[in-house]
User: Fold this.
Amino acid sequence: MIRRTMSRRPAPWALAMTLVLSACFEQPYRHYATAADAVAAGEAQRGWLPAWVPGSARDLHMQGDLDSNQWWLRADLTPAAADSLRAVLEPVSADSVRYRSPRRSGRWWFESLIQHHPENDGGLNAHLFRGTGTPTPRTTVVAFDRFSPTIYIWTSATRVR
Assistant:
């Protein structure tokens, strides 16, 4: 007869693996070719793809923080869709925005918006907006890249001034 023995304490490798896996899932990342793909995958129900994001959005990158309920979204929009989205937002200055970037974001998040010229390293190549409350929450910030069809959306930790 084979006896199975079980230790009451988990093996050290099991604890390490649990910590690594839990850290990986605190801010899950997803990518979709189209907004329709993201909707089909349940991102709208999770709250990571709000209804006010244009349905024509393409190349969506999204990441959420399960602990803080913050989320980040990057997508490409047609000029008409970008104009439509701007119409439900209000412009804000860069110094009025509080920002926390997603962990382990790689190259998909925000780096292209910073000017890389010595005379203006801190410059921002984007126009910033915030939600007005309807349909976009006031804690939502949207950055429209000035040189591409890309937008960046995130929830601010606090209300934007």
Q: What stands out?
A: The helical segments are 12-25, 35-40, 43-46, 79-86. Confidence is low (pLDDT under 50) at residues 1-7, 12-24. The CA atoms of residues 20 and 86 lie 40 Å apart. Residues 28-155 form one domain.
